[in-house]
Amino acid sequence: MNLLISDLEGTLVDFQWKLKESMDEMCKIIKGYNINYNLGLPITKLKRLNYSKLYNYFQKNIENPMLKKKIINDFDRIYDFYDEDAAKRWRLKSDVVTILKQLCEKDVKIALCSNVGRKALDYILDKYKIKIFFDITISRDDVNFLKPSIEGVKKILKFYKIKKKEPQDNIYFLGDSLTDVYTAKKAKIPSIIIVDEGENSFEEIYKHDPNHIIYSIKELLMFY
Fold it and tell me: H helices of 62-177, where?
């Protein structure tokens, strides 16, 4: 099977998420929960995590189901706000429509796996009329754990009835960030990382040894 699993922000659209502002707001909420519920959280350690690892930490480490639901709902509210804010400025990268169309013509199956929430994800896919290229789209609202967890990737592989990657399978994970590199490694799928003005610099990406680095989405055609 020819399959491309793609990220969204920084990969198909430009990167616009306000990382610092969102993390500052998250840390204020975490401090409040730590004090009010005497959670004994490692605040210094948590401040070093990015937004997806922070989200996953609380999914894994809060035992009280009601408290976990309350915290995750607060996280989702903040992330939805910054999704909506970024979506106002997102622009489709050059040649995305052309390349997606050419991949489909080559009988490449295309799936989307993003940490963006469903509302913003569908908004941008509809705005640029690219939803038709994807067989399945996985958003933050479709999983319990965000990338670099491979929960979303597993859902995609299950959709295509892929239980184990066979030698003849031509499957790649396309992204722009360290999170995407980690996700691909955990899923044991070769990564293709676009280095652009995304979440991480070329130097950061290179140090973590992705399988392939490209500078334009047009280079995808080399793999199929």
Answer: 65-87, 96-105, 118-127, 151-159
